[in-house]
Amino acid sequence: MPVNAGVDYGLAEQKYLDAKTPEEKLSALYEMVRTIPKHKGTEKARKELSGKIAKLKSQMEKVKATKKGSGANLSIKKDGCGQIVIVGMPNSGKSHLLNFLTNSNVKEATYAFTTKKPEVAAMDFIGAKVQLIEVPAVIAGSSKGKANGFKVMSWIRTADAVILLASNPREEKILLKELKNSKIYINLEPPKVFFKQAEKGISFTNENFLKMSVSSAVELLKTLGVHKASILLNEPVDEEKLIEVLDKSIAYMKAIIVNGLSELNKDELKEKIFGLLNKILVYTKKPGGKPDFNSPLVLNKGATIDDLANSLHKDFAKKFKYACVTGSTKYENQRVSRDYQLQNRDVVEIYA
Length: 352
Description:
By secondary structure, this protein is α/β, with parallel strands linked by helices. It has helices at 7-18, 22-35, 43-67, 94-102, 149-157, 169-181, 214-223, 239-246, 266-275, 305-312, 314-318; strands spanning 83-88, 119-125, 128-134, 161-165, 184-186, 193-197, 202-205, 229-233, 251-258, 279-285, 297-300, 322-326, 334-336, 346-351. Helix 1 packs antiparallel against helix 2 (22-35) and helix 2 (22-35) packs antiparallel against helix 3 (43-67).
């Protein structure tokens, strides 16, 4: 342990010693870099940390290249327009919620740990299918492997979004803590810091956002294995933020929190769940015909008429003349250009 190392560094070092996976080891090393005292007595220790980080990153890249395409992971095959996991503590009503939203018949019981493996079902949302997955219960200590916690957290982090089911504030606090300890950050955005490869050295754009000296930032980045980079800062950034940007083990996930099941409105809840996916539903119709409300097209938020045409067929997009939209436009069946940005539940008539 380095000279005058504090409690936080000691805890980070213990995390490194206890880590089971390369990702956990790398995350702990980043934490050690953040908490190690910055003085001459720790120079050797900081260089050793830099060497460990570089070596571990190299090993991880080699393993990643070897396993590429092997499918050796714990993710559940995605289906529909998005995959959302239902997360809760024992006896929180996860199976009841899954059945309520999907009309499935998953076993419900009053005793704890009824769910032993992920339960998968499809939720219908105005013709679109959203894949819902109930994972086994999360408990205090799941982030450390209790109650099959490592597998559960792996299933959660590979989904598109999360439904947190908590009966009371205490359960909500435990769930958020276990997820954060597993590097799953709920309803938080990644730091607005962007790295580009540079030919030499480390430079910053918008240096005024740095909450530390440039020399300290450069030294920190070199310790973390970054030696050539052009870095754009779009928000205030301190040492912790810089480390967070480089920690690729962090998953940023959108979530809704459901407290209690007795007064749920199914349609409102489905609307909120679909909203987690950052997608829109668009209905098409043939000129002079009626819209097909049973088979919506699912597009990313911000999609344009051009995106819609390309999703139908590339040749169709090439032959595109114009489109008429009903819904988000001022008038019904209003003619729009191909760069018109569509909104949820628009009805589109394309002429080609």
